[in-house]
Amino acid sequence: MAEFLHQFTEITYSLPLSVASLNQSAYDGLTPELKAAVDAAGRQTETELWTALSIRLQANYKRMAEDGVTIDSSPAPDVVAALRSGSVSAQRAWCSRAGAVCNQILDAFNAGKK
């Protein structure tokens, strides 16, 4: 990678996330005990995957630095502002499809970046 990419600016444009889904009708048909088990497994998996994401990012940055890539973790404020402004329409479109849960997801995501 360092052969072609000498500088890397961290802008959090993409994160390798894992997503699981299940059929609502199948879930609704579970006993309360099984629902509780599925919910608990989901919460545990979510915690583990967010932790793994952090570890994966740190490992990627370490490897890049070892390969000679200069990593800028503090991009210029005007660049960040332009990227945020540019993302507004995509976020609005997604929120219109996702419904009320959209803001909860974005708030949790943003809290995790701090």
Task: Please give a handful of descriptors for the protein shown.
114 residues, two-stranded parallel sheet, 65% helix
Could you describe the 3D structure shown?
By secondary structure, this protein is mainly alpha-helical. The protein has 2 domains: 1-74, no CATH class; 76-114, no CATH class. It is built from 4 helices and 2 strands. The protein has a two-stranded parallel ribbon. The longest helix has 35 residues, at 32-66. The model has no long low-confidence stretch (mean pLDDT 87).
Furnish the topology, listing elements before pairings:
Layout: E1 7-9, H1 24-28, H2 32-66, E2 70-72, H3 77-98, H4 101-112
Parallel strand pairs: 1-2
- The strand line-up of the biggest sheet is 1-2
- Average pLDDT: 87
* Share of helical residues: 55-70%
Q: What characteristic shape results from the CA principal axes?
A: flat
Strand content: 5-15%
Question: How many domains make up the 3D coordinates?
Answer: 2
- Count of runs of 4 or more consecutive helical residues: 4
Short synopsis of the structure:
The chain is mainly alpha-helical and 114 residues long. Helix content is 65%, strand content 5%. It is flat and about 55 Å long.
